[in-house]
Amino acid sequence: MANLPFSYSIRRNPRISRMRITVTPDKIEVVAPPKVAEALLHQFVNDKQQWILQARQKVAGNNRPAAFPLPATYGEGTPIPYRGGQYPLRLVCHPNKRVKISFNGELTAQIPAHLPPEAHSAALKPALVAWLKQQARQHVGQALERHTATQQLIPQSVLIKTQKSRWGSCGIHNDININWLLIMAPPEVLEYVVVHELCHIQIRNHSAQFWALVAEHLPGYQSQRQWLKQQGGELLRYGFGLMG
Fold it and tell me: Which end of the chain has fewer CB atoms < 10 Å from its terminal CB, N or C?
């Protein structure tokens, strides 16, 4: 136990026939049959060390506040994730027939004056989705301008899409797809995905050569890649909740 980066307790249970490990926010516990030697228990924990560390990290992550809290309704003051920040939505009555979204340091929604308050949320959600997609298209375009000239990584086409489990893709004819939900992530994360797919134009696999090419464009890409691993699932959940 002394050489492990965590402590654990042992509990004997006569009703089980195999050893198991449980990881909770408060403790790590080894549950074992009564006759299993203690040395064997310690060896079992040592062998499972990497799994335990990953399980503990996952449990800790599940207990932290959501980075992208999904609101029950959308209205005045609702925080909207955009470009790595959370912006309270500001509603302004307007004679427009449709909801219009704008951003100038704060996120504003012009609401048709005839629309009753109970209808605001249902009207705001599709307007926000359309606006965020438009913003994604604009910022992806800017990222492309910064990186396509280098080593002639020029895509055949670029589409902003809704993708359930992928942040981007590059087809066999160099058609690139980018998930619009990335507009809610920090700007450097969106840029990383664009660069990642551009580099696939030259190198189709994820070899060391591929990652070296990514690093030529973005020397700190590892932190953006890690952000997606840690926050990507929550971002997807928020995005599909917004569209639902």
Answer: C
- What are residue 30's DSSP bridge partners? 10, 21
Give CA–CA dist 141/148, Å, rounded. 10
The residues that bridge with 108 in the sheet, in sequence order, are 90, 102
State the sign of the Cα–Cα–Cα–Cα dihedral 41, 46, 51, 56.
positive
Where b means 16+ CB within 10 Å and e means fewer, 63-83 reads eeeeebeeeeebbeebebbbb
Count CB neighbours of 102 within 10 A. 12
> Using CA atoms, how far apart are residues 41 and 183, in angstroms rounded to an integer?
48
**For residue 174, is it left (φ>0), alpha (ψ between -120 and 50) or beta?**
left
Question: 171-198: string of b/e by CB count within 10 Å (b at 16+)?
Answer: eeebebbbbbbbbbbbeebbbbbbbbbb
Where does the chain show beta strands of DSSP type E?
9-12, 20-23, 28-32, 79-82, 85-94, 100-103, 107-112, 157-161, 168-170, 175-179
User: How many CB atoms sit inside 10 A of residue 237's CB?
Assistant: 13
For residues 191 and 182, give the distance between their C-alpha atoms in angstroms, rounded to a whole number: 9
Overall pTM > 0.90: no
Identity at 67, one-letter amino acid code: A
**Torsion angles phi and psi, residue 201, rounded to 5:** -65, -35
Average pLDDT score, the chain: 91
* Cβ-contact 221, 195 below 8 angstroms: yes
Band of pLDDT at residue 55, cut at 50, 70 and 90: confident
Query: How many angstroms separate the CA atoms of 123 and 112, rounded?
Result: 10
